[in-house]
């Protein structure tokens, strides 16, 4: 979701591959970005963020695509997608 949002906003970014098999996600350097050692994560002008919903809301807010009065509505749908929609796609049964 985060990479899609970066592309939609037309932002230049540098994707970084995290080699989880070698434990790169558990290094002290990576844990400073995401203390849970998961992906996705983003560092925007020195500010580390994790969780795709938080990243998407930050990008939309920072780069002018989310008017202040629409933050609650956007948060509602991002939170719904992360909790409900993702479960429908990624949980067996």
TrEMBL record:
CDD domains: GST_N_GTT1_like (cd03046). GO terms for molecular function: transferase activity. InterPro entries: Glutathione_S-Trfase, Glutathione_S-Trfase_N, Thioredoxin-like_sf. Residues 1-67 form the GST N-terminal domain. Keywords: Transferase. It holds the Pfam family GST_N. Belongs to the GST superfamily. This is GST N-terminal domain-containing protein. It comes from Haematococcus lacustris (Green alga).
């Amino acid at each position: 979701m985060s990479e899609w949002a970066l592309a939609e906003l037309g932002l230049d970014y540098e994707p970084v591959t995290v080699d989880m098999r070698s434990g790169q996600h558990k290094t002290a350097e990576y844990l400073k970005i995401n203390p849970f050692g998961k992906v996705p994560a983003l560092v925007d002008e020195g500010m580390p963020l994790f969780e795709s919903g938080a990243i998407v809301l930050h990008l939309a807010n920072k780069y002018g695509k989310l008017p202040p009065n629409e933050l609650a509505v956007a948060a509602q749908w991002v939170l719904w997608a992360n909790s409900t929609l993702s479960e429908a796609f990624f949980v067996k049964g």
